[in-house]
Amino acid sequence: MIAASSPRIVLHVGAPKTASTYLQRRLRADPGHLRQHGIYVPVLPVVAEMAGNAKLLATALGQRPSLTFQRAFPEINVSALDPAKLVAELLRDWRADSESVVLSAENFRPHHARRLRELLPTTVPCIVVLFVRRQDRWIDSYFNQMVKTNEISEDISTFVARLCDTDGERLCRPDWYANYEAWRDTFGSCKVVFYDEVASDVFGAFIAAAGLELVPDLIDIDRAQVSLNVYDLAYALDLKTTIDYADFLQRRAASEKASWRLGLDETRSLLSNADLERLRNRFEASNHRLMTALGNNSPTLLRLDVSSDSDSYCDLKEFYASESYARYRELADAIYTRHSRRHRFKALFKR
Length: 351
Fold this sequence. Notes:
Oligomer: single chain
Number of strands: 5
Strand content: 5-15%
Radius of gyration: 22 Å
Structural class: alpha/beta
Number of helices: 16
Largest sheet: 5 strands, parallel
Distance between the termini: 63 Å
């Protein structure tokens, strides 16, 4: 469908860790070219550095900003944000009679759906697009990101329990049927895209789900690897004392440099057999309901692993006791110590 001939609001609601940042950055890489083809991607100047153009709106709806958001925008008082004003600003320059508008935020949650429906115009169709992924691989990636950004310091089993047993506000709960049902019931439909099916062409899959046509000669961007390797992840979890964010960043930089020097780059899951069983017990029925609702008979798209016995998994206790980790840890600590000494030395001359 040509965007200009069938204007619509495209609402991309995540989920996180399904290439959302890549998708958002590509949408914003050449906005003028997109607009020439009837696709408008508005940006709020106050948070222009955020990839998702509607993330401030989602934050305003939830009133539970992430630590990453608070660090990046300490001047923004979230409690004072007005979702209606943010929607008005996002749509202010939208030519509703001749172009489609894309609003993207992976921190939209199912309980935001009704309020969003009230805020968005009803004069054009609103297409909701939700990317989903099997929960074991999704949690591996989500947990990795939360540790990397120092949002959490808990072990993965505690993290799994939180996602299984509580609704949460700041965290995304991977009950994909509940997500689908909330958006479908509120907006009339919800287009579900299976990340594992489209990982090689996420942008094309998004455009197709939104009912738009691919724009020729659109700039592509690199899909940077953002996950910590298993050594860096274990190192971050091995920090025994609470440290401030600046020191955490120094530790992370030291660990990443040690990995680079030693040629370490493998990523492995920290989920245990008990974690996998808990995930299956909590989400298998939901996954089945989603596949049934979509009329999708694939037996593997959302099938979770039964055992953590393969090489793609890592027993963290055994890993910490290994010679390879001890060698890596020694180098990372040495790099951190040298950096700290230089930092303190430089600070003496600034007084």
